[in-house]
């Protein structure tokens, strides 16, 4: 907890929850049960470093809610990991899944290491041992708890997890569903890598298409021409920047852990990544200006600010200086409750994490379904649809005596492949979630901000589920 913060991360989540609970009619006991983390597993295990020394690793898995099974949520590798943080992140997963109608409870894992300080072999040993510890305590499985990538982890770690799980559970036919975010060859789904960034884009695009909302902010509708600042160019920041740029926005600044680069005419995320590959940093990339401090990126004049790294970066101290009109929380918990109050007074729209970054878990859900059904999306219908479209087009051309141009022909005939279906399922999910939250906000104008409206939506769904389940005696 830094000095300018009054609350721990978990307390912040509880505070936002309580603020929203007032706008619901649920029994206090039900609300207390929803807020509580059901199971917290703290573990320590030894790892032998490459130099022969032995180090004790601290790690966690938290299952916040089992109102739906399995629990779901990523595993992060960071030296900031602590129990409070993992509990907060697990809680956010419960609310996130409820908002996007993904039938999972919330979970989260963390290993307290900075992955940059370990070799690939050491990381593999740590990941596999962590998985074995989860298996021992029944904290992982396709019907129990399903991890995924988070800050500091990716498909490589997920491949180690599924391999360890499958070897400890021989013959388990659904073993691939024990973790998501896997490489395609290990049961992953096409479209998972870019899912969170694409979801952020779909969510903000939907907000920007709402005339009344944009009018209040003094902005024109649409994404075209909007200026965007992205904090963090990890998987989520990179893909967010990419989709905003490809759809006509100008990404004027990207910041990283070692500095922030700026170009008023717009940056290209791929050029920065290519430059970083050569030099180890985005600093001094051609055509960019370095900001004095990386934190200055957050305070730049822009239409949309996308914090896409870690929690608590916008707080009571710097919120008064934020100049963005819209904040899109791609990270989990980037803005504190104090910041929310300030945004509210200043008329800044903060689009909250637990729905805006739900693209990752939404596509994880698609991956899990693929694993349980043992068939690739599109396999059964792609050819059928193409044959049907060919036939329909042939009939139209025959009857009209005209021929459709080649580009249109390719588009009309195309049967959906896995990536098409995943992107389309994600787009539908994000549009529906945005509209549901905005509807709740409009129906109750006393709700102060979009985060509270999102929480109201989540609480109502989770509480309904508890109420219908009944409480086990
Ligand atoms: N770590 C991501 C999140 O915070 C994805 C979780 C998942 O796919 O289960 O939402």
List keywords for this structure.
473 residues; binds glutamic acid; six-stranded mixed sheet; alpha/beta; Rossmann fold; 13% strand
Give your account of this protein's structure.
The chain is an alpha/beta fold. Among the domains are: 39-186, 3-Layer(aba) Sandwich (Rossmann fold), CATH 3.40.50.10860; 195-356, NAD(P)-binding Rossmann-like Domain (Rossmann fold). It has 16 helices and 13 strands. The protein has a seven-stranded mixed beta sheet with strand order 10-9-8-7-11-12-13. Strands 1, 2, 3, 4, 5 and 6 form a six-stranded mixed beta sheet that branches. Strand 12, helix 10 and strand 13 form a beta-alpha-beta unit. The longest helix has 26 residues, at 418-443. Residues 72-74, 148, 150, 180, 332, 357, 360-361, 364 line the site of glutamic acid (GLU). Glutamic acid (GLU) binds next to helix 12.
List the helices and strands and how they pair.
Elements: H1 9-21, H2 28-35, E1 39-48, E2 54-63, E3 71-72, E4 75-77, H3 83-99, E5 105-111, H4 120-136, E6 145-146, H5 155-168, H6 195-208, H7 211-217, E7 227-231, H8 235-246, E8 250-256, E9 259-262, H9 269-279, E10 289-290, E11 304-307, E12 326-328, H10 337-346, E13 349-351, H11 353-356, H12 359-373, H13 382-400, H14 406-413, H15 418-443, H16 450-469
Parallel strand pairs: 3-5, 3-6, 4-5, 7-8, 7-11, 11-12, 12-13
Antiparallel strand pairs: 1-2, 2-5, 8-9, 9-10
Helix pairs in contact: 1-3, 1-16, 3-16, 4-5, 6-8, 6-12, 6-15, 12-15, 15-16
Glutamic acid (GLU) is lined by residues 72-74, 148, 150, 180, 332, 357, 360-361, 364.
């Amino acid at each position: 907890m830094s000095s300018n913060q009054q609350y721990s991360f978990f307390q912040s989540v509880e505070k936002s929850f309580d603020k929203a609970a007032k706008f619901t009619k649920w029994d206090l006991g039900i609300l207390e049960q929803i807020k509580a983390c059901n199971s917290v597993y703290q573990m320590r295990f030894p790892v032998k470093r490459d130099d022969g020394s032995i180090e004790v690793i601290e790690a966690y898995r938290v299952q916040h809610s089992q109102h739906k099974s399995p629990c779901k949520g990523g595993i992060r590798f960071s030296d900031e990991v602590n129990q409070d943080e993992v509990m907060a992140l697990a809680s956010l997963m419960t609310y996130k899944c409820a908002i996007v109608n993904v039938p999972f409870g919330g979970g989260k894992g963390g290993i307290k290491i900075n992955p940059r300080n370990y070799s690939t072999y050491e990381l593999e040993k740590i990941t596999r041992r962590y998985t074995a510890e989860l298996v021992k305590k029944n904290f992982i499985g396709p019907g129990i708890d399903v991890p995924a990538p988070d800050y500091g982890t990716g498909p490589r770690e997920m491949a180690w997890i599924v391999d360890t799980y499958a070897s400890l559970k021989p013959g388990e036919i659904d073993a691939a569903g024990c973790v998501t975010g896997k490489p395609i060859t290990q049961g992953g789904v096409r479209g998972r890598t870019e899912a969170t960034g694409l979801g952020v884009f779909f969510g903000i695009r939907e907000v920007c298409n709402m005339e009344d909302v944009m009018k209040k902010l003094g902005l024109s509708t649409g994404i075209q021409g909007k200026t965007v600042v992205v904090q963090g160019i990890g998987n989520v920041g990179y893909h967010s920047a990419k989709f905003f740029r490809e759809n006509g926005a100008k990404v004027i600044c990207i910041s990283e852990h070692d500095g922030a680069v700026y170009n008023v005419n717009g940056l290209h995320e791929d050029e920065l990544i290519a430059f970083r590959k050569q030099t180890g940093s985005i600093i001094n990339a051609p055509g960019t200006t370095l900001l004095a401090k990386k934190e200055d990126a957050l305070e730049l004049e822009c239409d949309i600010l996308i914090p896409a790294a870690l929690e608590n970066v916008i707080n009571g101290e710097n919120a008064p200086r934020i100049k963005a009109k819209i904040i899109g929380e791609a990270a989990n918990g980037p803005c504190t409750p104090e910041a929310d109050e300030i945004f509210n007074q200043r008329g800044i729209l903060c689009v909250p994490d637990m729905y805006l970054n739900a693209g990752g878990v939404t596509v994880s859900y698609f991956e899990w379904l693929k694993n349980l059904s043992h068939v690739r999306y599109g396999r059964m219908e792609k050819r059928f649809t193409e044959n049907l479209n060919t036939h329909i087009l042939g009939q139209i051309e025959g009857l009209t005596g005209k021929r459709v141009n080649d580009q249109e022909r390719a588009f009309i005939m195309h049967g959906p492949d896995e990536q098409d279906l995943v992107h389309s399922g994600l787009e539908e999910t994000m549009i529906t979630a945005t509209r549901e939250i905005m509807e709740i906000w409009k129906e109750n104008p006393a709700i102060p901000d979009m985060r509270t409206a999102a929480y109201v939506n989540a609480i109502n769904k989770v509480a309904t589920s508890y109420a219908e389940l009944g409480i086990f005696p």
